[in-house]
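Hi support team,

I'm opening this ticket because the web form for multi-chain structure prediction keeps timing out on my end. I have pasted the exact lines I submitted so you can reproduce it. The total is 642 residues across two entries, so I didn't expect it to be a heavy job. Is there a limit I'm missing, or should I split the entries? Thanks in advance, R.K.
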Amino acid sequence: MYNFVLQADDLDSLIQAIRAQGYEVLGPVVQDQAITYGPVACASDLPRGWTDEQDRGHYRLKRRTDGAYFGYAAGPHSWKQFLQLPTRPVWKAQRTDHGIRMTEIVDEAPAVAFLGVRSCELHAIAIQDRIFIDDHYRNDSYLNRRANILTVAVNCTAPAETCFCTSMQTGPRVTLESDLALTEVIDGQEHYFLIGSDSYRGGQILNSLPVKPATARQLQLAEAAVDRAAKEMESGSRQFDSGDLKELLYRNLDSPAWDEVAERCLSCANCTMVCPTCFCSTVEDSTDLSGETAERRERWDSCFTRDFSYISGGPVRADTRSRYRQWMTHKLASWFDQFDSSGCVGCGRCISWCPVGIDLTEQVARIRELEEPS
Amino acid sequence: MDRAKLAVWKFASCDGCQLSLLDCEDELLELADIVDIAYFKEASSREVEGPYDLSLVEGSITTAHDRDRIVEVRRQSRALITIGACATAGGVQALRNFSDVEDFAAIVYAEPQYIATLATSTPISAHVTVDFELQGCPINKHQLLEVISSFLHRRPPQVPAHSVCIECKLRGNVCVWVAHGTPCMGPITHAGCGAICPSYDRGCYGCYGPKENPNTGSLVHWWQEELGAEQATVIENLRNFNAEAPAFAHESRRLAGEAGQESGDDQK
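Hello R.K., no limit was hit. The queue was backed up. Here is the completed structure from your submission:
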């Protein structure tokens, strides 16, 4: 699909063409010493020449030696925050002379373009789509927002140490549909993007850009850049066989590995907050002082909190061991039973943003290591 | 229907949490319409006799007199809610629990023999039954109003006991610990402040005390081994306004190599 070439100097024309179609562009920006997702008005807002150094419990913003626009890996933010809002009002209720009047709060769903979506992130959005749109309990807030999103995917050529999408078969090459898809190539003095479109609206934007047909060499260089990223991960320490994860975890619900990890885990919930597929939320009902009005709010929740599993009599999962086990077995095993796929896309965010550096790939290896031959 | 009678009590404290109630301004007028503010010495010299429907208790127990007075407050109160770090964990004055209070008195007072004080500062819950503890130094006024509303309307208060990290993530903050290497108490600290310090690019001080199920030992290990925090820094962070909260005190005592008792409530 990457049939055209857009010179890096013309990248701004892409952003302006998207804006001209009425979309607010959200994309990578440098903020608080990290590459986060925020409003992008022009190409100079992008993190050109920046990258990240990531390891377990560690993230540092670093300078690149080249001027790549998309030379970084998944950061602290994910697109989840724009689709499943961290917190939102659901309804308000007012006491009247004739009883209680309930008002559903239908929130605004703006036309938004996600610029720089990685393959792992397209997979994460697809997973959330299955949960919020395709499953039994539709979330209208998510559905309305999702319908107004234009996706501009960028093939990953700069994975972090913490990335393992090759183990989860979710990247680095973009394989799911997006409105537009790009590959960034820097070849000596040449700096350009291979660009293509999967959709009518993407095609309309593409038609307005100063692009030229790609040459065989340009296509080849773009392929090679993504191949390099794949090889980097495949030869890294976090590569593993994910084919039997469900069976492995179901066999090992009493593994001593859960006790070991509970010694370290802070049950702070950072892993679930940064995970692009973790979808749990709670609702908080409150009244004002007079008791005349009430409100329900939805808020991101986490299986690492006590309240998450609280029922009459106490929490089902009172200790850290049971909370971590719940998270990991859901993510890698029971997700298959529930949604027919893994809940993990291998983006590595849970590894980098765990304050005490708990590494999901290490936990899998540890469970395997401790498993006694049956 | 009679209005509920509200009382606000002060024990050893700085008054900051009571001030959070006065600081409610617009809502304070509404509150005064809805409840009878029957005893609130910081706001009014009016005193209505008990019993009271709701007592808000600020401060810790540091004297024999207060130790008796809290029992009477409890006796007069249908519901008793503690507000702030002093009332729920002993406050900054619980630093005496890690030392000898007579040494402090000798330094501060010219005639320390006139000072009658207990050897420890203890939370209200060490002396009487408490219906709800609102943590924070000082407490958050929105949370205070939420707790009062929930009491008035017989519903559970929306005061989540999870970490400050969740508040950071809801705000979209970049983690100062992971991205900057700044030691932060957020992962073991109770939410409620709205993650103010990390939002201004510094580590959490732990003003709101321990969250539920905190793993202080693991946090301390990473601070020392990976973030290069000095032992003195770790102890200072654990011994702030919530020094005697068991989840913090246990670890700071271990670090300081002390063989002291865990809590001073045998002073009763």
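A quick check on our side: Chain B touches chain A through 44 residues (CB under 8 Å). Let us know if the file doesn't open in your viewer.
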